[in-house]
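Notes, p. 3: input format for complexes.
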Amino acid sequence: MSTAADLETHLRRQGAACGDIGSPMYEALLSFAADDYAAGGPVAEVCRGWTLEPGPAVLALRLAGTVHRFALSGQAPDLARFYPSVAGEDVEPFDPGAAWTAFRDVLVARPEEVRAGLASPPQTNEIGRSAVLIGGLLHLRARFDLPVRLVEIGASAGLNLRPDQVRIDLAHGDSVGPGWSPVTLYDPWHGSLPPLDLPIEIVERRGTDLDPVDVAAAAGRLRLLSYVWPDQAVRINRLHGAFDLAAALPIPVVQEDAVRTVSALKPAPGTATVIWHSVMAQYLSNAGRAELDAAFDDLGALATPDAPVARLAFEANRFPSPAGVLFGLTLQTWPGGAVTPLASAHPHGDTVTWLRN
Ligand SMILES: C[S@@+](CC[C@H](N)C(=O)[O-])C[C@H]1O[C@@H](n2cnc3c(N)ncnc32)[C@H](O)[C@@H]1O
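Output follows (357 residues plus S-adenosylmethionine):
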């Protein structure tokens, strides 16, 4: 059972973490929120009865995301004027005190709606991670000259199921992916680059998730947008681009546990079955991760040279990486089950450092 001091510390720590990975706005607002909580203000009121157990409840991000949703849907205009995600080019210079007052006013005006919002866990789908997936698919293409059946577990809204439609512009003038794409990722790749000139052909796309988001619906899009931090305009813009791709090529994400999805798969002759997952394993228990590994081993045992299986996993790092970078991409292929570390990367895919292979 967590205590009031734990909640205050959690708000402060999450604010500092937001500052570390690119949101000075949330760093400031969550620091004010921690003060307000400690003083028994409206933050304490909406969080009354809340505990941080069980699991990673991320109360701070639930609170910030809920309030962001009001700003995005036009119900918090005094706050929205400071949020680049809503005000765009008309955004006012960030005034932490004034923004906090407007944030706090939302809690005072809508305590029950905010409390209802806190009940939903944050849900994100980061299209920037396609920079990781695309490089992984190019590496794989160099091994298997076969079209790909792409299956994503923990897919959220499935936005990363269209990696062949995302463009990457590299610093030295090369690019990967179609020029018409509404999603361009700028100069994310460093190190020993994957082969750039191999075509990736995707013949089947499937996504599953325990809690899928339907971006064909306005509520689904609002849900995803609300958990992106409002001062991260690049992420917001590329998310809108990913919504456009999803509208042009809808791929419903099925509600299903990851283990069940992998257990039900069979290799398909003439194609490489590629199962991709990103920032999903941390939500599984140790036993759940072991079960997932076992399901992959069972699937891999059915693989043949004409029907290979690959697991591309972008998860909290399992091998050494440059300082400050916490996530790694590994490739496991069957027949054989060999594991190759391919890259380390920023958790959102903003910079990807490819290892020499
Ligand atoms: C941080 S999100 C990442 C979503 C997406 N992979 C991405 O990189 O943008 C984690 C996702 O894992 C899903 N998830 C958690 N546990 C799961 C499980 N046991 N089976 C399937 N999906 C799961 C959550 O619902 C959530 O959509």
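The first helix runs from residue 4 to 20.
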